[in-house]
Write a sequence for this structure.
């Protein structure tokens, strides 16, 4: 300890490593520079224009872990946090129970700090768990194949539409008007320079036979289960593909998309064991038919054997990918979401057959209890009919922003504002995380707020 | 090695094959609300074919699998272009604070001021480090950052009524994501050759840059680990032709505190937070690829952008935004980690990152160049590209050398990239490795070169000590087996 402090000034001496994350001491640096054959570091960067070298930075001095941790924790504490507050927000991200096994596995640095498994012999852990992920997604959706994950649900949806365009050689796509408009916004950003026509259609509208796909969301933006079989039949009659953007938890209870002959299933994977984390990192789920795998975007893990005949796993069908195919690749994806896929794999393994079914049933029971009670509160109504899972639209007696502000006062994070679709309407989500006390608290709050317009 | 022989006995059956009817790893509570009627039977699934295993089995299965991986926590990982530096543990701890890990993306900004403040401050830091002050943290990975940057370039030209700019100029040494992103953005890819020293061929660039040029995408330092000596001339050529210059920031680690991309004339760049800013790579993501632009281009940034007004932070959509490129606000958990890292390093620490990364790479290069050819015989930046051309003449390929390194507990370098180098082995040690580790790597690389002469078969059939030997990738692609089959 005394060696590192200048006794006259109390300052740290400059002979040690510059930072806990940078081990080279002054002596190491001197030895290396000598071995390189230069007398100063600057000789190594002579190609950088001299007048621009070593610019001033506004960034603060290094903060030691002790004070940094306190500082950042204080920032986190400024947020209103679900859990401290009852939360009825859904609309693309969902609050669910995450068993402790998920975080336990996520503590394994061998998973967390590995790279994309380009050297399969040194990455069998990542590869086999990725294969488990693909298998779980196929089982859940009753689909033939799944990739190893996309960035998130909306980008998976956009890539599915682009895949349908490649498969059908048609450039017009029909998207049901009942999808979350954010899905369409991402699709537009992904396809803006590809000469694609996006047509928004009503669920029962006729479709022309020049479309690449009918893409829809089920449960849809309003929480309602669409007629997956009917829409798929109409897509196929037009020679088009059927793309459903699903909610994975719903399929613990409801028929899987594969049962209806859907061609591509995408979903936000976050509900399967991934923390809300203000929207990321999540994982997009993407499943399709075996016959379409050459047009699949993203990483795919396949099973094979080694020279001794032992089973092993590798990244496969890489000729679709950007590092081989460059501008003709099926997608530009490189770094994806392997670790979030691992969380999903551990979640599905832990919940298993019974657990996921129980979670889905709890969501259904609680959401339906809440909905049936809200429908009886004067001034509130359920504007959308149809079978729903764990989300439903509620029309309020006053603007949603006012209602939500009043709820927040009572320790409740209210619903997602969909007033751009239906006036004064919010989308409420109820999951297994909402106790009956929370639900009854919401009902009481609605009654109180409702009367004071 | 006992661990290795134990691995040979390792039970690698999949979860579905371990499933025993009736077993479970967790119990869910029963419902506390009055029973609600279920929908019609035909809508309900009759079977949910998922694993039934105990909780211990879940933990043991995944824990044992984790041990089959190389990782930064356990191995030196000199994978070029990937910046496999140490991932500080405080980063993960901060990202899992309930105030960050549990907040909902649909909560309005006023409920999550701490989160939006963090995003704002990270934007400021990234803008400062790159000299490109307009920042959106939305892109979820480097390739998405590239795509966002190209959308911005196209929107900029369109705003000037300049619709004929449909070409992306891309060096032959570029990452594959560059042309793939350009194609997604509807641009025609035109390849710019490298000269004999591994630099952009400036004369060729001069010929190619014209009124069709939308953007020149340049990785700096290049994928050869070199800083372009003519960088100011290069950016000038493109600007004179009316195009924009895009920096692929994959190699930004070498530039921290050394030079700002904006000062060099770049208009747009992205940064891979999972490389330069120490967030874990996760075995293939999640990443984060913020896009940085000049003041002039900031109105085109993808949404959202964190803004500050007085003491209030909001997430806004820029006036001419290229739109929404993913579901929410970016890889927020990764943003927390990167912000934590920047604060932990501080301004001098960040400069030390680049300095030591560059010294480490040059040290390795200086100690191996008598045994391995260099892609370019001059000082490198943060990585050095070796060539196994000499070893290939002795019938051992770069791939074999890479695999042999695994037997020594060292992860392979990036192989066969950049494409313009024969038998390329791209080595990036990063600043977080000690001289002792570098010395061991050097010793092993020299030893393998000896072995190429003395026992080439041992190298050609490596690895010998891992859970599997070389895997049959051809069959995997020819007969795809992509999921558990009952």
């Amino acid at each position: 300890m005394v060696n590192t402090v200048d006794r006259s000034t109390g300052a740290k001496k400059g002979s040690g490593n510059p930072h806990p994350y940078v081990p080279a001491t002054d002596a190491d640096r001197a030895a290396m520079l000598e071995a390189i054959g230069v007398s100063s570091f600057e000789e190594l960067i002579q190609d950088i224009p001299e007048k621009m070298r070593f610019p001033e930075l506004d960034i603060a001095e290094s903060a030691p872990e002790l004070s940094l941790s306190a500082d950042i924790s204080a920032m986190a504490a400024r947020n209103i946090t679900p859990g401290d507050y009852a939360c009825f927000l859904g609309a693309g991200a969902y609050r669910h129970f995450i068993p402790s096994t998920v975080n336990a596995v996520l503590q394994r640095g061998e998973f967390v700090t590995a790279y994309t498994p380009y050297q399969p012999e040194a990455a069998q852990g990542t590869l086999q768990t990725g294969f488990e992920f693909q298998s779980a997604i196929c089982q859940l959706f009753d689909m033939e194949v799944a990739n190893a994950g996309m960035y998130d649900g909306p980008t998976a949806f956009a890539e599915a539409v682009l895949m349908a365009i490649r498969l059908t050689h048609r450039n017009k796509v029909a998207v049901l008007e009942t999808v979350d408009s954010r899905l369409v916004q991402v699709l537009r950003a992904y396809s803006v320079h590809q000469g694609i026509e996006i047509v928004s259609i009503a669920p029962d509208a006729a479709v022309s036979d020049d479309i690449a796909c009918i893409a829809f969301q089920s449960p849809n933006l309003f929480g309602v289960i669409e007629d997956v079989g009917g829409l798929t039949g109409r897509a196929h009659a037009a020679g088009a593909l059927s793309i459903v953007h699903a909610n994975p938890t719903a399929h613990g209870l409801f028929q899987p998309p594969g049962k209806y002959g859907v061609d591509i299933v995408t979903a936000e994977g976050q509900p399967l064991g991934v923390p809300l984390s203000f929207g990321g990192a999540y994982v997009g789920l993407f499943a399709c038919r075996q016959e379409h795998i050459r047009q699949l975007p993203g990483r795919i893990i396949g099973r094979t054997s080694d020279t001794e005949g032992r089973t092993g796993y590798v990244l496969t069908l890489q000729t679709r990918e950007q590092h081989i195919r460059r501008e003709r690749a099926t997608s530009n994806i490189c770094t994806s979401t392997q670790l979030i896929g691992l969380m999903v794999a551990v979640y599905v393994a832990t919940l298993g057959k019974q657990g996921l079914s129980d979670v889905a049933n709890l969501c259904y029971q609680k959401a339906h209890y809440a909905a049936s009670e809200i429908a009886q509160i004067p001034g509130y109504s359920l504007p959308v009919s149809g079978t729903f899972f764990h989300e439903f639209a509620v029309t309020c007696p006053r603007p949603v922003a006012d209602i939500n502000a009043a709820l927040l006062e009572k320790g409740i994070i209210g619903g997602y504002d969909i007033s751009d679709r239906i006036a004064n309407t919010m989308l409420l989500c109820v999951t297994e995380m909402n106790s009956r006390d929370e639900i009854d608290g919401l009902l009481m709050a609605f009654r109180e707020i409702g009367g004071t317009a | 090695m006992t661990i290795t022989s134990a691995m040979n006995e390792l039970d690698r059956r999949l979860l579905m094959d371990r499933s025993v009817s009736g077993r479970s790893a967790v119990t869910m509570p029963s419902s506390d609300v009055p029973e609600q009627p279920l929908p019609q039977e035909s809508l309900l699934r009759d079977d949910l074919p998922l694993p039934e295993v105990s909780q211990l089995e879940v933990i043991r299965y995944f824990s044992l699998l984790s041990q089959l991986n190389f990782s930064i926590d356990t191995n030196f990982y000199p994978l070029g272009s990937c910046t496999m530096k140490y991932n500080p543990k405080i980063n993960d701890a901060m990202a899992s604070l309930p105030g960050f890990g549990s907040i909902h993306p649909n909560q309005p900004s006023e409920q999550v001021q701490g989160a939006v403040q963090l995003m704002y401050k990270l934007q400021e830091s990234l803008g400062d480090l790159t000299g490109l002050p307009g920042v959106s943290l939305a892109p979820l990975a480097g390739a998405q950052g590239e795509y966002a940057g190209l959308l911005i370039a196209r929107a900029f030209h369109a705003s000037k009524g300049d619709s004929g700019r449909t070409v992306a100029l891309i060096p032959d040494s570029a990452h594959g994501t560059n042309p793939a992103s350009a194609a997604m953005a509807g641009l025609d890819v035109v390849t710019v050759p490298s000269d004999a020293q591994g630099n952009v061929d400036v004369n060729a660039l001069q010929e190619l840059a014209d009124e069709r040029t939308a953007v020149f995408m340049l990785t700096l330092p290049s994928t050869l680990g070199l800083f372009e000596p003519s960088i100011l001339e290069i950016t000038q050529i493109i600007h004179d032709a009316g195009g924009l210059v895009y920096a692929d920031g994959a190699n930004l680690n070498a530039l921290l505190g050394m030079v700002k991309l904006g000062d060099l004339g770049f208009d747009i760049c992205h940064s891979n937070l999972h490389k330069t800013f120490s967030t874990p790579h996760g075995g293939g993501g999640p990443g984060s690829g913020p896009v940085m632009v000049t003041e002039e281009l900031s109105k085109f940034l993808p949404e959202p952008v964190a803004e500050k007004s007085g003491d209030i932070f909001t997430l806004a959509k820029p006036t001419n935004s290229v739109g929404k490129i993913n579901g929410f606000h970016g890889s927020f958990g990764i943003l927390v980690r990167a912000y934590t890292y920047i604060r932990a390093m501080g301004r001098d620490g960040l400069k030390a990152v680049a300095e030591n990364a560059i010294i480490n790479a040059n040290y390795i290069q200086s100690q191996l160049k008598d045994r391995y050819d260099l892609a370019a015989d001059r000082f490198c930046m943060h990585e050095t590209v070796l060539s196994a051309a000499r070893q290939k003449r002795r019938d051992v390929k770069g791939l074999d050398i890479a695999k042999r390194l695994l037997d020594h507990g060292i992860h392979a370098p990036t192989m066969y990239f950049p494409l313009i180098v024969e038998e390329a082995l791209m080595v990036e040690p990063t600043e977080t490795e000690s001289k002792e580790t570098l010395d061991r790597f050097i010793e092993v690389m020299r030893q393998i070169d000896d072995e190429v002469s003395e026992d080439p078969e041992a190298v050609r059939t490596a690895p010998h000590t891992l859970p599997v030997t070389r895997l049959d990738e051809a069959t995997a692609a020819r007969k795809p087996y992509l999921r558990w089959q009952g």
